[in-house]
Amino acid sequence: MARVVAFIPDLLFGSNVLGALQAAGHEVVLVGDTDALERASSGVEVLVVDLTFDAANRIGLKRPQGVRTLGFYSHVESETRERAQRAGFDLVVPRSRMAREMPERNASSFATMSFGSGPRPVEEGAAMPT
To answer: Considering its fold, how many domains does the chain have in total?
Structure first.
């Protein structure tokens, strides 16, 4: 399975993501600030970023070289989605979709799926890739 760093300052939602990914066998480090993100990012294969926090802006919405990226945002923040797509995030999904679908459909497969080259937004009504 994959080594995942999840930059999710919201501890409640972060613990839900952490639990789903660990249950699927992934090695997961949950971080809540940019300093911890830098310390934990060595050797990471997948980076999950909560784009709704201002701290996501401080990391510059940059896609680390060779790291698959999944960003999630509030469905009302279309500008955040667009910035993440322009920055090269592999997958950008609304937070509600992430919460609804990750535990049952994607925790076991999202970290190993082929993201392809470039952003792939998941529009409202479409399922996250499995």
So the answer is: 1
pLDDT digits (tens, 9 = 90+) for 80-121: 888 888 878 888 889 888 888 776 655 555 544 434 333 444
**Amino acid 123: pLDDT:** 43
Residue 28 lies in a domain: yes
- Token reading at 117: 């080259």
CATH number where 8 lies:
3.40.50.2300
Domain range enclosing 18: 3-117
| CA–CA separation, 99 and 72 (whole Å) | 10
Cβ atoms of 6 and 24 within 8 Å: the answer is no
Q: Which of 112, 80, 99 is nearest to 20 (CA)?
A: 99
Give the pTM. 0.76
- Rounded to whole angstroms, the Cα distance separating 50 from 34 reads 12
Give the strand order in the sheet containing 3-7. 27-31, 3-7, 46-50, 68-73, 91-94, 120-121
Distance from C-alpha of 94 to C-alpha of 72, rounded to nearest angstrom: 5
